[in-house]
Amino acid sequence: MDPFAVSHLVGYESHLPTKNVRLPLKYLPAKGTQDASEKYTSTLLGHSGYIDVSSQKGHFFSLIQAGVTNDRKHIRLTPILVDEATLLGVLLQSLEFVLPHPILGKGTFTHHFLPLTTDEPCIVIDFLDESFLLVTLRVELSDFLVGNAKSRLSLDNINEWVNISVPYSFELRSPPFMMKALDAHNLIVSMNDGGLLHFRRSSPLLSFDIYNFTDAAPAVSLSLGGLFARSKRTENEIGGISSNAAVDIAYLNADDFVILTLNKTVKVYSLRSHRQLKQLSDLTASHGRSEWVNNVPNKYFELHLHLDLKTLSLTLPTENEAAESKCPAYTFINWDISDGKLEQHDTLKLEVDDLNRPSHADLKSLKIQDFQILQGQSEVDYFVLYKSNTYSEVVRFKQAKSTKEITLITRSLTQQASVFAELSSHRDSLYYVNTVFDSGMFDKRMVAAALDIFIQNSEKKPSLFESTCLRDKVTTTVSFISSATGVSESSTWYKFALICLEFRRSSQEALSLAVQQDMILCSEVNAVGVYRKAHPLRWPFTSLPLTD
């Protein structure tokens, strides 16, 4: 099978106008004197995923990229156009919520899409900030339309789109470790001490009723026949967090949900009685793997449907008995929960060889960053995003339902050498100007950051006016530094372009994936990665020149 080719749409949201939204809270003045490179990094997405809104009929877009920046003070929502909606003359915009306090962590940011019932279809976003404020945002799909006459997201009608509360005294007990929305009405909060809370509300912007869960269920062995290595001893804490803290949470049925704990135990709880119903305690896999603590919370559960079959899948790293240089293996445990019970299951071990990977790939730390499972009549497709510190790739495993064997593995092509591999200072200045501003390789955020670095490292500073456009600022700065240092202008442009290139490379770090009908989309820290069969890419947004 042909491999997947990838195209990176850098600065995707910059192709759309952005509406900035502030909360009805006090904002402190922004701190200055930040290093230019650190300032740029803080604006990139630290974690991100896709919200699927395709269940809403008549939608102009089927996905929304939702992410939180590295400084945890900005939430970005960007509609992803994978169809020809632009032909309808509809103008869309991104939304950026500017927060007065940082979000506590990536585990305390959650969202849920509520399709049209009696109200407008909306996205419900909940997050806990460092002040332990629980903020709920209600974003309607119409808010992404430019010139929407309703203009909901303003301080004049905050009751329509935001609720801010202090529902629980975390400072008196234990900080929250993870929060997950089961639906628009039920939030589950796991704390550092292993405690579990249920926040229930009758409507997204109303106050919560709070319930504590109790653990009172006997342990039940999953009997996986030694598939996972057992820990030699039980740890009460891992990395300062209780081993009972939840690292992922998923619905089991209308009344019950499951959690995966830090010590890799699966527990079932009731939303009605708030008691533990079941515990599967034979999942103490891959003990001693320190990266387990560093990578949570993350995605380990997935619910997927095919006709009347409802499956809950869990993935965990498997203890690797092979050479240390070999890529880590992962095992998927698949429960048939069509009857709402966590009983019948099968397992599948997935691993990929290290052939055809670039020499710089950090294979020993390769892990599953995200995955999505699609079931067909006779086959199951596992789409897996693998990632290490220096490398990422998308792999599809096709499994035959009848034999449970993997029949086909399709991998993404290794990233091609950049066009800058052929560049040298022998090019003329105009070539670099066109590359930086007109090739579509760089967005405004990258070029502005490169300009800050250039000025920051220059002994003499050029005089720039705020009203001057970015292109003129860069041109003036490059000419000034060239004259001040005695270096040719083309060589100075080359150095500037290399800084932009480094920002482009860092912008392509993959965070999550979403499988579409004829492509796979990866949410990246400052881009959208498009994976599809290796042929010329057709996409609503091709590389566009940089504009102010």
Automatic annotation (TrEMBL):
Keywords assigned by UniProt, alphabetized: Nucleus, Transport
Domain Nucleoporin Nup120/160 beta-propeller: 68-536
Keyword flag Cell membrane: no
Subcellular localization(s) per the UniProt record: Nucleus
Entry keyword Zinc-finger: no
Pfam name, any one: Beta-prop_Nup120_160
One GO CC annotation: nuclear pore
Domain of life assignment: Eukaryota
Transmembrane annotation, as ranges: none
Main location: nucleus
Molecular function GO labels: structural constituent of nuclear pore
Protein name: Nucleoporin Nup120/160 beta-propeller domain-containing protein
Originating species: Metschnikowia pulcherrima
